[in-house]
Amino acid sequence: MTEQWAVFAAQLGLLALVLLLAYRPLGDYMAAVYSSSRHLRVERWIYRAIGVDADAEQSSRVYTRSVLVFSAVSIATLYLLQQTQQWLPYSLGLGAPSEHLSLNTAISFVTNTNWQSYSPEFTLGYSVQALGLVVQNFMSAAVGLAVAVALFRAFAPVARDALGNFWVDLTRGTLRILLPGSVIAAIVLLLGGVIQNLSGFIDVTTITGATQTIPGGPVASQEAIKLFGTNGGGFFNANSAHPFENPTAWTSLIEIALFLLIPFSLPRTFGRLVGDIRQGRAIVGAMAIIATVAVTLMTVAELAGSGSAPLAAGAALEGKETRFGIVGSTLYAAGTTLTSTGSVNSMHDSYTALGGGVAMLNMMLGEIAPGGVGAGMYGMLVVAIVAVFIAGLMVGRTPEYLGKRLGPREMTLASVYIVVTPALVLIGTALSFTLPGVRDEVFSTSILNPGIHGYGEVLYAFTSAANNNGSAFAGLTANTVWLNLALGAVMLLGRFVPIVLVLALAGSLARQTAVPASAGTLPTHRLAFTGLLIGTALIVSALTYFPALALGPLAEGL
Amino acid sequence: MSPITTDAHTSPSTSVPAGLGLRQITSALPGALSKLNPVTLWRNPVMFLVEVGAAFTTLIAMSDALTQSGSVPVVFTVSIAAWLWATVLFGTLAESIAEGRGKAQAASLRATRTSTPARRVVSYAPDVDADARSVEVSAVSSSELHLGDIVIVEAGEVIPGDGEIIAGIATVDESAITGESAPVVREHGGDRSAVTGGTRVLSDRIVVRITAEPGASFVDRMIALVEGASRQRTPNEIALSILLSSLSIVFVLVVLTINPLASAAGEPVPVVTLVALLICLIPTTIGALLSAIGIAGMDRLVRRNVLALSGRAVEAAGDVTTLLLDKTGTITYGNRRATDALPLEGVERAELLRAARLASLGDPTPEGSSIVELAQAEGNAGSMPSGATIVPFTAETRMSGIDVPNGPSLRKGAGSMVARWAEVASAAQGVELDGVVEEISRSGGTPLVVAERSAAGVARVLGVIHLKDVVKEGLPARFAELRAMGIRTVMITGDNPLTAAAIAAEAGVDDYLAEATPEDKIALIRREQEGGNLVAMTGDGTNDAPALAQADVGVAMNSGTSAAKEAGNMVDLDSDPTKLIEIVRIGKQLLITRGALTTFSIANDVAKYFAVIPAMFAGVFPGLSALNVMALASAQSAILSAIIFNALVIIALIPIALRGVGYRAQSATALLGRNLLVYGLGGLVTPFIGIALIDLIVRTLPGF
Description:
Low-confidence stretches of chain A: none
Helix content of chain B: 40-55%
Number of strands of chain A: 4
Low-confidence stretches of chain B: 1-18
Largest interface: A-B, 70 and 78 residues
Largest sheet of chain B: 7 strands, antiparallel
Shape of chain B: elongated
Largest sheet of chain A: 2 strands, antiparallel
Distance between the termini of chain B: 61 Å
Radius of gyration of chain A: 23 Å
Structural class of chain B: alpha+beta
Distance between the termini of chain A: 22 Å
Shape of chain A: globular
Mean pLDDT of chain B: 85
Oligomer: heterodimer
Number of helices of chain B: 22
């Protein structure tokens, strides 16, 4: 046991070191990308092609409209690509998936959720993977970054209803951040043993003489952006537990680092863009503390290994790969649920009740520690706004965050924001167990394990969808009309309602002149504020789910 | 200068009982009961939800009792219903008590409003007969007076309505409004021309133009304010209500989905328990006390004789980042005092002081008496020489003094005039005098030249008395405090930059505006506001009105013109400009109280979850009893204890809501640390202890 904890400490320490080293350069680089006034030649071509004046700033209303139009077109394109798969080249002879599955998948990839109700290697060919899914892996992450940066810009001291230009932010995020990062990541993963080919299905004869069909594909390239953009949709159904996606304990650690890199560096970008790097430090501190506690709790639960199967096996290794071990699995599982990545290197459904509960709780926090690319940061800023509002009163001033007053309009937007995700999770789960017809289908088809754990599978699915995570308690059979449509709707609302609210909030903050900071201003760069952020996140977001968790993981594990 | 105190009840003029008297509660009870009316209660969504829960539980209790069925014992349902009603009632009681505190004041104000006879001038001719000596007058009741009517008020009569003096001067007893017994002078023209209806003229005769319609007078507004009738929710209160509502909505969803979820795992939870959980989770504590906090904040201002014309202004006072303070009367005593005597060459200091004292004996102004005091302090004493003639100051001569029969004539006054009177002989003396005069001016003082003409007719200049604006005691410390609170002070003065700089340095203000015209003042306010600052200022003159209107917090002096009073958003009945500092504190205290109780209320949720969740599900999942960290006796005692705690905590916090949390002038960092510890951590821990203790009693009841 002590040995396991030593491994845990070493791996966590190594990760922390990598993230710490990347924090400044990556954060500063991203700040430079979004504040630069120069366009690359290829970017100019793109702007000309889509007919955009790259130097014109957009108001919050126009910015929002651009995000929504772009995403709607993306969903439609991805849906049509799947529906026409049978006519596309390199489709490996695969036909079009069902309409509801295609819709679910289209929404899933455009919302950066990457929930997969299907086995990708046997459902989607190379064309759809490369032209559809991979493109959205870049775009959905770039949209998240753009929205976050638009919110950062709203804190500029001078009143101005301008949040930047969505098309420029989208292009730069893709070409200057995600693409180069993914190229480097793909090379590293290739060196680590991840496959990259276009060889389709290969039939091999196994040692025992049986025939096995082994799918190949351009895995490393897709793997890189899957992680770097906190997407999570794997090439294989087994995701990063598959040896072609994630061959060794080392590649596993690299993959964890990849999906943590941007989310943990964005606070620095925020600090840079608002002109006070200490502000970013307070936020990244809160993220790091929550993440460390979460991964530790999960590891405690898994190493304790309560339950009959682990006791029989000697450790909670069901659903985990021996090449990663318990610690390598919990690090990945905690990281992927804290970042809205949703890729897995072990099966969360097989975790101990409490360990699986931590995975759910991570998502229930609202994906803010550090959360998805961009989305985590704007989610955390909304939590910060709520925290500032309550605590700001306690210093005797109308609350203001970075000099921007939080009045009725700002608080209405933040208040609706904090309601949306819990509402989607709870209503979605509740409807699955109450709608006549649906309830029977959920019990007979979808749920693998009866009783409390089966309930947990459904709760996990809706939590994952509403928070745009994409991981699953994989025992659940999600490819049913109800779950495809319900989860699709939840993913869509869970992504774009918050985005609309955040951009409206950004507009209303941007239109204010900042109050200069003085000794009477609530300090938002100190440790006390970090504590406040954690407390607010726990009480306002996580506590909401206490009853739901009590019925599932807590009832099962205690 | 009155001492500034942090708590309302420590100030002698504003003593308020700290705790809740039984009488206060009983007199507030009828009001509290009438506030239970759902038609009005729905404005407070949190408490409305509690009331709906209480009504719902009551119905369940009745039907369970009649049908002898139900999943939980009737005594449990009845107890929950009773305590839920108590929770709502405690909330309305808090509001009612807060309003009650203003009622007494309103009653005494109302007494001044009783209609008084008035003498209305039928046709007023300002050019011919400004004093209205020979005009036709009709007797009407004060309630029949309208805007623009002219009335005559003489000694002993009550002024029939708010107005402006258009002719005459009078001493007026305003104690009915301000509580200050010393009469004040009100006169036509200038900045002391406004009179308030209900006050009494003590001497002389004035002609007043009525400036308010009946029912819209200053006193009427004041009554509405102190009673809380005209209270409108402030932006911050609205923002907080929105946040509280959204938290309530989340918890409604949580509770509504529990049974659907439990249908997949576990057993359905009784509706009474769900209602109890909901009420435990929604922020009832702050929901119940929110409006009481607002009313009490206004009340604290009223008790300091400041009328805020809107609640918004009180909050803005807490946000103020720049204070504009007039030099005269606010920073300095406003009257210059003699601080030194500088004899010219060949004159003894004692001789100068003796002459200066004699010249000032007949001078009743503060400057004059300060010269006498200075001389006496250095051993010059004695009474006025018999038969001496006092030469008063006139604007023409710009000097004053005394003529002693068969003795010298003495004069003091402005340099050039006195020098001319004394026929300064030599150029050398002239140069020396100019030097001294200039030096005093540069240091921020006023030179007062003293000269003598002997009985023989020989005149000579003796020296110069240094008159200085004296900064009020304790102000530098006060400004340092404001700086710690993050507030910048700017001194406004008509003095030249040299004088202004000297006084600014002495008083310890952060900045000053010298030779300020009203236009400069308003430009400064605009500039500060463009930089994101919130500006507060005081003023009394008509020329202050635009600046008062532009400022975020404009405090008009009650003694000022009605234009100033209309322009500002607060009126200080004591006309004490220093009170601005106190107003800022009250604004901050109001916001802090609101934030502290919100934090406390939200932090309470953690413990309540730990009380109710195991109680709800431990029957089906025994493992969940591990969450019962308070070792509560049974499911029902746990839930009831949580509900009782939830209700009692409202009562326990009413005194804090009314009094405001303690406020010390500290930096935001220090304030946050302290309040987080007390109300955040306190809010986390208190209910764990409270619920456990209540459970010790509840478990002894039959049926639990």
